[in-house]
Amino acid sequence: MIVLYIIRRPRIGKNEPPLVPYTIPILGHTFNYLFNIRKFIKECKKQYGECFSIYIFGEVVTVLSRDSLTEVFKSPDDFDFTSATNEFFPLKSLLPYNADVDIKFHAKTTREQISGKLDTNIGIIRKYLVRGIDEWIGDCNEPKTIHSAWYLVNRIIALPIANILVGEEAASHEDLVKSLGDLAFDLGPLLIIPPILFFIHKKLHELVITLPLRFGWNPVSRHREVVVNRLKPIVEKRLKEKDELGDNYKPYNDLFEYYMNRPDFDNTKPNNLHLHVDNLFAITFAAINTTSKAAVDALYDLAGRPEILDELYEEALIIDKECNGQVTVADVQKMVKLDSFVKESLRHSGNIIFLPHYVISKGYTFSNGLTIPGRRKIILYTEDMLKAKENFGEDAEDFKPFRFVNTNSPATKVDRSYIVFGGGKHACPGRFFAINETKMFLHKLILKYRVSTKSGKIEDKIYIGPLTSPSQSGIVFENRI
């Protein structure tokens, strides 16, 4: 313990952000980080300013807020998000066929093939959201209570996404859609394992959480097997059509067709299909998980505030009549009250600190004069920015569903104060798809049901360290007509 203390004793150089004092040797601030983070970080900022360092899991980590936080987005080449994320969540070990694929490829693919094709795919989103709602919520002539709604919403959200990713023929197989939807839930527990072994060495954490993989257990394996088996005959069918039709071949409108048209697609090579399925999983993990969480958080926020439901219903009814139920992207953009509600729900997501980065080796000096040395980890105090009175007024802490109506500030817009989707040139490229699907889901739900919490109260989210998970309390659905 003494040797470990000496090795791990934090060393702060000149002109660095101050290190918050701590009383527990070796552990430092780890306990407060895991179990009391909101109060702890808020008090640290009040006492030490917008930049300060804490000692958690055996290393000094610098917390940034307000102006310093936005500089990270403005200077993306000076910070490394991928390495910091891989420490906690070794996705490359879980998706071994995808290990050499650059994250920029997935970002470009999402931007061009998913968000960039909203006008084409909005009909698919509408069709399969309605089908999912009818199948998994169904008739509620008698009030129906659903607990742990995230799993339910995830299944509904996954249905249109699966059709867009692999096409309607492949997505007609229930086991394939279920695998795509369940992937994030099966990988999720790895995200919340505290990296206690960081106290000894960072590689030990990765070694332990990936140890089952070395003995053949991989939560992705069974999902990969299902998807590969379902896609294989479809790939062969499409390749045959290309050979027979030549220039008359009509490409399918799904992401996997895009993969098949890439130079690195070669169905004759062993495991080539596995590579592209893992590419698919990398996007699936982000697309379905984040969209379903945004949707279920908004659903709980709506259910806990029945006083706003009628106002949103009036807007939904007008738009639905105008388009005769065939909602387009233009119609989704008219849902200004719903858009404001979704944006406010995202602003109140509850995540305290988020988006870890490493400072690159040469270090970085912020405009306030403070310097952070190279290879220091930084974390962004996102709640501080999202609840800032300077940005959102004196009532910034309050949930005001129509705060953004008539402000020319849609939920997809990224600015220095609204950092839910990151910022700068690396802002989430899938946000346009996620917001449109979330709004479409809520629109159809509001038209069909009255929703409320079983308790009659606004339900709190569940905190897991600095992050949140949706409530597991009951939501009551009741037919409108």
Structural features, described:
The structure is a single chain. The protein is globular. It has a domain at 1-94 and 351-396. It contains 22 helices and 12 strands. It has helices at 2-8, 30-35, 37-48, 66-74, 81-88, 91-94, 103-114, 118-136, 149-166, 168-171, 174-191, 202-209, 211-214, 221-245, 255-260, 272-303, 309-323, 329-334, 336-347, 382-386, 389-392, 431-448; strands at 51-56, 59-64, 79-80, 144-146, 354-359, 364-365, 371-372, 377-380, 449-453, 462-464, 467-469, 475-479. The chain has 481 residues and is α+β, with helices and mostly antiparallel strands. Strands 1-2-8-5-3 form a 5-stranded mixed beta sheet. A 3-stranded antiparallel beta sheet has the order 4-12-9. A hairpin with a 2-residue loop joins strand 10 (462-464) and strand 11. Helix 9 (149-166) packs across helix 16 (272-303) and helix 11 (174-191) packs across helix 14 (221-245). Heme binds at residue 428. It comes from Rhizophagus clarus. This is Cytochrome P450.
Task: Please write out the topology.
Blueprint: H1 2-8, H2 30-35, H3 37-48, E1 51-56, E2 59-64, H4 66-74, E3 79-80, H5 81-88, H6 91-94, H7 103-114, H8 118-136, E4 144-146, H9 149-166, H10 168-171, H11 174-191, H12 202-209, H13 211-214, H14 221-245, H15 255-260, H16 272-303, H17 309-323, H18 329-334, H19 336-347, E5 354-359, E6 364-365, E7 371-372, E8 377-380, H20 382-386, H21 389-392, H22 431-448, E9 449-453, E10 462-464, E11 467-469, E12 475-479
Parallel strand pairs: 2-8
Antiparallel strand pairs: 1-2, 3-5, 4-12, 5-8, 6-7, 9-12, 10-11
Helix pairs in contact: 8-9, 8-22, 9-11, 9-16, 11-14, 11-16, 14-16, 16-19, 16-22, 17-22
